[in-house]
Amino acid sequence: MAFMGLSISSPSYLLFGMVVLWLLSSPAFSADPDPLQDFCVADLNAPISVNGFPCKPITNVTSDDFFFDGFIKAGNTTNTFGVNLTAGNVLAFPGLNTLGISMNRVDFAPGGLNPPHSHPRASESGVVIEGKLLVGFVTTGNVFFSKVLTAGQMFVIPNGLVHFQLNVGKGKALAFTAFNSQLPGAVVLPSTLFASSPSIPDEVLTKGFQIDDDVVKSIRSKFGF
Ligand code: GLV
Ligand code: MN
């Protein structure tokens, strides 16, 4: 049998098949790995560190390990961006350990912005519970996708892409987001670039953004740097 001029037994065809199989099985193309047991409640105080957290001894596991009440209260949105993220990741909810999922509660003051950021280890989906949010993300090809959503509407942000949510309604807003990682991580562009420790050299920022030194200083000062 031949495909695009290649015989199925030709070395090129076999090599192509091996590359496809390798790509499909490579962890780089999936989110958190699948668990190898029913659960593994994180022992956040374990003295050793692994890719995730070691499990608590099963005899110490209780019902409470599988429930989380951290989303009951609205977060305090009195801050620069008018937003508060309450993370329901493995650090707050150890029962998530090895399960490859987590959630956030996101509260917005009127006009509040969850600033442009990305999650290095997860795709994100979200649902608006209250208010009106402009949700947007930019692809690696610089294409901007966005939509204004109201209660009950859902969105998805593909893995690693820069995205934001802006409260464009009259009152406060609330959304819940979900991730295919127990610890998705967040690279928040304003603070990553202008409030790192130690600071990124000024020249990188002035050249990178084509701005003057005083603009860099002014942005840094807004973050207390
Ligand atoms: C929203 O973008 C979130 O990361 O929870
Ligand atoms: Mn996000």
UniProtKB/TrEMBL annotation:
One annotated Gene Ontology cellular component of this protein: apoplast
Q: Sorted alphabetically, which SUPFAM superfamilies does this protein's record hold? A: RmlC-like cupins (SSF51182)
Keyword Cell membrane recorded? no
Indicate which residues the UniProt annotation says bind oxalate: 104, 114, 119, 124
Give disulfide pairs as residue numbers.
Answer: 40-55
Q: Any idea which GO molecular function terms this record carries?
A: manganese ion binding
Instruction: List where in the cell it is found.
Output: Secreted, Extracellular space, Apoplast
Using the record, list the residue span of the signal peptide; answer none if the entry has no such feature: 1-30
Which UniProt keywords are listed?
Answer: Apoplast, Disulfide bond, Glycoprotein, Manganese, Metal-binding, Secreted, Signal
**Domain Cupin type-1 intervals:** 69-217
Short name of one Pfam family: Cupin_1
State where Mn(2+) binds. Answer: 117, 119, 124, 163
Main location per UniProt? Answer: secreted
Residues folding into a coiled coil are none
Q: Name the protein family.
A: Belongs to the germin family.
Give a short account of what the protein does.
May play a role in plant defense. Probably has no oxalate oxidase activity even if the active site is conserved.
Q: Give the protein name, as stated in the record.
A: Germin-like protein
Which species expresses this protein natively?
Quillaja saponaria (Soap bark tree)
